[in-house]
Structures are given as C-alpha cells and as structure tokens.
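User:
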Amino acid sequence: QQQTVKLSTSTPFFDNLQETPVKGAIVKVTNDSDQQEVLFIDQNNGDYKTDEFVPVIGQSYTLEIIYDDETYLASETMTSVSEITSVYQSRENGFDKEALEVNIDFNDPNDIPNFYLTKFQRRGDLLQTIFDVKDEFTDGNKISIFYEKLNNEDTGETEFVPGDIVDISLLGVSEPYYNYIKLLIQQSGAQGGPFSTTPAEIKGNCINLDNPDNYAFGYFRLTEVDEKVYLFE
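Assistant: Predicted structure:
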C-alpha cells in the first residue's frame, strides 16, 4: 500500500493552528541489509509518498531526510504483532461497574520480550486514547485490555452507549519506541494546565548529522498492526 512520510516545521504555540509543511526535502528509506533504497516523492504539501516500500518483519531500515542542507537519520526495526483474538463488551472490568467498556484479547508469544501500543477511538470523538503495554509479567499468556469512557461534565466526555462504534488498533513496537511513547503518554496526562512547564523534553530517534542541536521531533516507527471495529450492542 502507499506509504507517506509527513514533514513539517514546529511553530510557536501562540502563532496559529496551521501546519507549516516542509517542501523540497529529499526523503528515502534504506534496507540496512542490502542497502536497497526507496525514494519518497515530494507532493509539495509536506507529504512524501511511495508505493514501492514493502517492509519485512524483523528487518532494520534507516530513514534519511535531507532538508535545508542538513541530513537527518533515524533507524528502526519492523516489529511484528499478535493477532487480536477476540473483541467484546462488558461492564465489570472498568472503574465504573455500570459503564460499558470494550475489551480485546490477544496471545503474547512465549520467551520473547514484546512491547505493544493500543489505540481506541470512538467514531465522532476528536482524539484517540493510547495505551502502552509490555509483557514483563504476562510473557507467553493471554493479554486483555479494556477501554472505558466515563461521564465528565468538565471535558464533555460521555459513556459508551449501544450503537457507538470504536476503531481499535494493536501495534507491535520496539523497546526504544515503547520507552519514548510511554513518557509522552505520562506527560500528556500530567496535571497543571496548558501553561505548566514540560517536565522534560523527550527526544525521538531522528538525529541531525550536521547540527545535532537541531534535531527533529517525533519518531521513525515501523510496526505491524492488527485492526478491529466494534459496535456496542
């Protein structure tokens, strides 16, 4: 399928809500084993696309971006994921025993450290909810994850009701990415309001070879994903 790399530059918080796309960059991904390169074509809107990149599970790849006379590199290994074996609704697993929740089950491979990212988004909601999961205490066993929404007058959040549709994704991720996204999730849930100081700046895996201080935000990630859709009854 078509793959897309999105590039933009950061802007001051109070400037505007518009993206500032990067145009004119050179973007390619290289197979670290045979050095085969795939070039992503500039769409002149910040997107760089190709339909020639076919990643292999367990293979490492390097993303190279050349922009404004500086070269950025990031390396990652294509990570597999277990298949979701069941999706179902219940009321007993969440914090509110009266509220509906959606559950997923999957089997974790034995004797292999595995790291996962799960995404849940009710259709119509603006944002998705993300959970980081590792098999430190569940290696080789069935892993179950539930997602519940509670009524909250301050945020406008409402419980699930029959007829709601939830899009679910289970991704296998590398340990470095797991550590990265875990910190981001922790910081995004921190209290203190929009003007509180960020506890610590979190760096991804994209480095600048020419000017290390001008590194890129974000993370070059290669994952297999299993997706499900659930309709509440």
